[in-house]
């Protein structure tokens, strides 16, 4: 059993992990930069350690400082949350080398799934359908053009080691392909230190569907259903729903079991998410995220399963607390990501929260680290809160979301609350008529 966890993150996810630890009776250590000395996760933790100045490279991404903080504080495990070091295989390996437990999958699996080409090959061998495309990295422009012609335009050029929408370019014709290819390689090299790219058929109007899985060291694996994450801006998720409107219960059950079986065969440990594109009643695997997801709360509220708690218990050597037969789905849930950004320009906004009021009432959950007078620094990701709404059906869920957004007060900085209110009242959103390009079209119309 894990006794003390160092939380190698900040913001709302650090508070979320801290709460799960406290529910388990596990002590917590918060790390922080000098910019986060008064942050909520620091205030709530049993102990805290400053790991450096504001810039992430010198604090939250400073591996020696993070591991030293764990050793000095007597922690026996490290939870990386999401972002920062959560999908860093080298960090995971170093944590274990220092006799600590990494609350996440094996380092080899992090590395394997971090390479999208290898991830596709792995799950294709395990029987999951993938988007048509190149079998591996394409390093020669002439071969790339020939491959693109064979796949058929439009073609998507994607970074092999990428994420977050960077290193992805679309070519609608051979005329556009060379520039898309070179730009994607250049962006990938700068962002990830790896300029390898591969090609995929660009799907015209797909949904982005992902399945949550959990697996233990005893060969047990379950799926917790799917989430629809189609509402995205620049390939960054903004609004997520569980369950999807496009999958039937029978399809969900059959495909979910197939995913769980593939995960067990793979030997995966911990929680993870398999992501797919859905078009013409077919799902195509695109990647696996080997960490807790930002949008995990909507799965928690429709299943009643504390995913972070399970993650900690699995890392401590426990069996899954549920079997597939124990998993059931109740109602509908929506999560709105509340970013510190201008709703019209999406320019990040930093500053001091001068007035804060959190919405409440039936079916409302807010994951946040905000409080009156707290500072939102300019150095980190703009996600500052998540508004999660649960109801018996989607219509009631949208009504509750509109109520909650109307109650939510965050003053002193710009946020995406006005955008979410606009989406919650949009006829196409209400009708469920959207795909991954919806927000792009909406912005052009505005």
Polypeptide structure, described:
This protein has 446 residues and is α+β, with helices and mostly antiparallel strands. It has three domains: 100 residues, 3-Layer(aba) Sandwich (Rossmann fold), CATH 3.40.50; 70 residues, 2-Layer Sandwich (Dna Ligase, domain 1), CATH 3.30.1490; 239 residues, 2-Layer Sandwich (D-amino Acid Aminotransferase, Chain A, domain 1). It is 35% helix and 26% strand. A hairpin with a 2-residue loop joins strand 10 and strand 11. Helix 4 runs antiparallel to helix 5 and helix 7 packs across helix 8. It is globular, with a radius of gyration of 21 Å.
Sequence-ordered SSE layout with sheet pairings:
Elements: E1 4-7, H1 11-23, E2 27-33, H2 40-44, E3 47-52, H3 63-73, E4 77-79, H4 89-97, E5 101-102, H5 107-114, H6 116-125, H7 141-151, E6 155-159, E7 168-171, H8 174-192, E8 197-201, E9 207-215, E10 221-233, E11 236-242, H9 249-266, E12 270-279, E13 282-289, H10 296-303, H11 307-315, E14 332-339, E15 351-352, E16 355-357, E17 364-368, E18 375-376, E19 383-391, H12 394-407, E20 409-411, H13 417-424, H14 427-431, H15 438-445
Parallel strand pairs: 1-2, 1-4, 2-3, 4-5
Antiparallel strand pairs: 6-7, 6-8, 9-10, 9-12, 10-11, 11-14, 12-13, 14-19, 15-18, 16-20, 17-19
């Amino acid at each position: 059993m894990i006794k003390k966890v160092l939380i190698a993150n900040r913001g709302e996810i650090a508070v979320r992990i801290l709460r799960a630890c406290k529910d388990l009776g596990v002590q917590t250590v918060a790390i922080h930069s000098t910019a986060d000395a008064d942050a909520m996760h620091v205030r709530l933790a049993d102990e805290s350690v400053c790991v450096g100045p504001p810039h992430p490279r010198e604090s939250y991404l400073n591996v020696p400082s993070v591991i030293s903080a764990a050793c000095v504080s007597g922690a026996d495990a490290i939870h990386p949350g999401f972002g920062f070091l959560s999908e860093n295989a080298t960090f995971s390996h170093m944590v274990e080398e220092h006799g600590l437990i990494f609350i996440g999958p094996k380092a080899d699996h992090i590395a394997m799934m971090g390479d999208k080409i290898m991830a596709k090959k792995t799950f294709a061998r395990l029987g999951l359908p993938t988007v048509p495309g190149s079998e591996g990295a394409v390093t020669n422009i002439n071969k790339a053009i020939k491959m693109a012609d064979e796949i058929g335009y439009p073609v998507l050029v994607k970074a092999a080691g990428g994420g977050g929408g960077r290193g992805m370019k679309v070519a609608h014709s051979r005329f556009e392909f060379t520039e898309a290819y070179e730009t994607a390689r250049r962006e990938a090299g700068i962002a990830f230190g790896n300029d390898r790219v591969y090609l995929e058929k660009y799907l015209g109007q797909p949904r982005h569907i992902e399945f949550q899985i959990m697996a233990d060291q005893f060969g047990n694996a379950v799926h917790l259903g799917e989430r629809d994450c189609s509402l995205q801006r620049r390939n960054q998720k903004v609004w997520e729903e569980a369950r999807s409107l496009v999958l039937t219960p029978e399809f969900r059950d059959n495909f979910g079991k197939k995913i769980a079986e593939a995960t067990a065969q793979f030997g995966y440990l911990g929680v993870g998410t398999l992501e797919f594109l859905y078009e013409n009643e077919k799902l195509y695997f695109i990647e696996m995220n080997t960490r807790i997801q930002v949008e995990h709360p909507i799965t928690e509220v429709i299943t009643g399963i504390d995913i972070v708690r399970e993650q900690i218990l699995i890392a401590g050597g426990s069996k899954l607390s549920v079997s597939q037969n124990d998993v059931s789905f109740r109602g509908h849930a929506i999560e709105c990501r509340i970013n510190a950004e201008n709703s019209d320009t999406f320019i990040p906004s930093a500053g001091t929260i001068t007035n804060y009021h959190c919405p409440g009432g039936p079916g409302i959950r807010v994951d946040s680290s905000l409080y009156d007078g707290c500072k939102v620094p300019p150095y980190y990701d703009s996600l500052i809160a998540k508004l999660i709404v649960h109801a018996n059906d989607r219509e009631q869920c949208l009504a509750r979301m509109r109520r909650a957004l109307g109650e939510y007060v965050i003053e002193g900085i710009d946020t995406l609350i006005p955008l979410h209110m606009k989406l919650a009242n949009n006829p196409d959103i209400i009708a469920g008529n959207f795909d991954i390009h919806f927000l792009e079209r909406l912005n052009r119309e505005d």
